[in-house]
Write a structure and sequence with these properties.
Layout: E1 4-7, E2 10-11, E3 20-21, E4 23-27, E5 30-35, E6 43-46, E7 51-54, E8 56-58, H1 74-77, E9 81-86, H2 98-102, H3 107-112, H4 122-131, E10 137-140, E11 142-143, H5 144-152, H6 161-176, E12 181-185, H7 196-208, E13 212-216, H8 224-238, E14 242-244, H9 258-270, E15 275-279, E16 284-288, H10 295-298, H11 302-309, H12 312-327, H13 330-333, E17 340-344, H14 358-365, H15 369-379, E18 385-389, H16 393-401, E19 405-407, H17 428-443, H18 449-455, H19 458-464, E20 480-483, E21 504-509, E22 512-516, E23 519-520
Parallel strand pairs: 1-6, 2-7, 8-9, 9-10, 11-12, 12-13, 13-14, 14-15, 15-19
Antiparallel strand pairs: 1-4, 2-3, 4-5, 7-20, 16-18, 17-18, 20-21, 21-22, 22-23
Helix pairs in contact: 5-6, 6-7, 7-8, 8-9, 14-15
């Protein structure tokens, strides 16, 4: 007797193999039979005309602290995601010191929701996530930037021997207790202050316990190849599997450069270096407005940055440098002020700027763009999010077609109501996976549908050594997404980012239906999501 049978669908099993007709039977939280099981006494879902595939694995997500605010992970599960891997770009929920909490965009909402961010270990944090009802599975990396901030603070300096040992301890204990590896964000302070040798030494600790090294490389513009070479060096010298986060080339000078970067990835793999990449399927990035500032301006952390913005002499120096970057430097190369759109502000008085580009905002303020940027950062306590239109569509397609490139949203799970419905976030939160399936695989023919599904399921599970998930096979956990291949598409846009995907019919997590006939069930109805720990799932 089975609990559920998915009948009459075309199975794409996540391995990349050609689809085939079969029924899929579920007993408890596992796939019990693939073939033609007896249907007597079981509930039957008719998947005629639909694809039955593994639940999608978001290998690069940022639903760290916000899992407590949005345990349904609405924007992800409604596009078929059943597992989130957070803690990327060097930023994880553990370790989290008091200074970090004060400058975190979710801090006020967490306090308002009564969530105490007082976990003292990775094990403690994961246990806390385990204790809350949630819709999808949650996994995490340990962030190098969070570790460095906790041990060294936000200063631009090398670690001493004692600090290095403390960072190693935090990473060792975190990966041993379930983190899937070490992540770095080398454009963000304090990660940007680390030398390559520090990254190698810390990555060696992660790999001892089976972890990988996922890196937002040091430059994604005209120096992208040099930054990629650094990541390859870390992989070689530390002996650690490397994951290049959201691989892309930004700016006019980087156009076409991904052909060379992918060639270097192939060459590194031929030399025995285990290196992959991931990607989101858009031509715009999303990050903090503070990333446009030079490194010296953010040395010491958010408060030090704000002090410099409010100091007339330092502000004048910063104005001159930003004006140069906007005139003949990297800001100009990346599309200038028109290409940077405000997506999130912390204070209510600044909400009117959300959805405007910098030029439009400056005009509204009756200021020059450089002064408008500095004033907004200063007035909003540095917590300003932006979307930057900096990539070339041809490069996006080139990266997507490479066999070692996986799919990840690089996004926080958002919702259409509550604290996670604020701002004008990147549409990738609601659209990443269905955009690959609909726009790129079906409409553009960039990928076969089987290959597209494998990039977000089986290949991702294999990359993480995620046991018994990512592939439809008897004995594996019943994480399953059922979609209509003819109608599946993203509807979220930059102007209207809070819009559900079309064509996702059913989503099943650990054997329980969480999306039925396109409707997301509330966590009060069903909450089958689990914490996944490295080596234990």
């Amino acid at each position: 007797m089975f609990d559920l049978i998915i009948a009459n669908g075309s199975v794409i099993d996540g391995t990349g193999k050609t689809r085939f007709q079969a029924d899929v039977a579920i007993a408890g939280d596992k796939i019990a039979r693939i073939g033609n099981p007896e249907r007597n006494g079981s509930r039957v879902l008719d998947a005629h005309g639909c694809i039955v595939g593994p639940g999608f694995i978001d290998i690069h997500a940022h639903t760290d602290h916000s899992i407590f605010l949005n345990p349904s992970c609405e924007s992800k599960v409604t596009q078929g995601v059943t597992t989130e891997v957070s803690g990327n770009c060097g930023d994880s929920a553990f370790p989290l010191n008091s200074a970090s909490v004060e400058t975190n965009e979710f801090a006020d909402a967490l306090v308002e929701a009564g969530v105490a961010t007082d976990w003292v270990s990775m094990d403690d944090f994961l246990n806390r996530v385990e204790s809350i009802p949630k819709t999808i599975n949650f996994a995490t990396m340990i962030g190098h930037g969070s570790v460095r901030d906790t041990v060294l603070g936000s200063d631009d300096r090398p670690s001493n021997i004692y600090e290095m040992e403390e960072m190693k301890r935090l990473i060792r204990e975190s990966v041993a207790r379930g983190a899937f590896g070490l992540s770095s964000g080398l454009i963000y302070p304090p990660g940007c202050y680390a030398e390559t040798e520090e990254l190698i030494e810390l990555a060696q600790v992660a790999v001892q316990y089976g972890g990988i090294y996922a890196t937002h490389i040091r430059n994604e513009g005209d120096r992208m190849l040099t930054a990629l070479d650094e990541a390859i060096r870390v992989g070689h010298e530390a002996g650690v599997p490397v994951q290049i986060s959201h691989h892309k080339g930004c700016g006019l000078k980087a156009r076409g450069m991904v052909k060379e970067s992918l060639r270097r990835i192939d060459n590194a793999r031929a030399r025995g270096i285990d290196i992959w990449a991931d990607q989101y399927p858009y031509t715009a990035t999303s990050t903090s407005l503070a990333t446009i500032l030079p490194i010296w301006a953010v040395d010491g952390g958010i408060q030090s940055m704000l002090d410099r913005l409010r100091d007339p002499l330092k502000r004048d120096r910063l104005r001159r440098q930003l004006a140069r970057d906007a005139g003949i430097g990297w800001i100009a190369d990346w599309g200038g002020w028109d290409s940077i759109v405000i997506s999130y502000t912390n204070k209510e008085c600044n909400k009117r700027y959300e959805g405007l580009n910098i030029t439009e905002m400056a005009r509204s303020m009756e200021k020059e763009p450089v002064d408008a940027v500095m004033d907004l950062l200063s007035n909003d306590d540095g917590l300003v999010g932006v979307i930057r239109f900096a990539m070339d569509e041809a490069d996006v397609e080139t990266v997507m077609q490479h066999p070692t490139v996986l799919i990840g949203s690089d996004a926080t799970a958002r919702s259409t109501s509550g604290p996670m419905s604020a701002g004008k976030p990147h549409p990738r939160s609601f659209g990443t996976f269905v955009r690959v399936l609909g726009h790129y695989a079906r409409d553009r023919g960039i990928l076969a549908l089987e290959e597209a599904v494998s990039k977000m399921t089986g290949k991702s599970a294999r990359r993480l050594n995620l046991l018994y998930r990512g592939v439809l096979a008897e004995g594996n956990f019943a994480d399953i997404t059922i979609f209509d291949p003819y109608t599946v598409i993203d509807t979220a846009t930059y102007a209207q980012p809070f819009s559900h995907a079309k064509g996702i019919k059913y989503v099943i997590v650990n054997g329980e239906i969480v999306v039925e006939d396109g409707r997301l069930k509330d966590v009060s109805e069903t909450a089958p999501g689990r914490v996944l720990r490295r080596g234990q799932t």
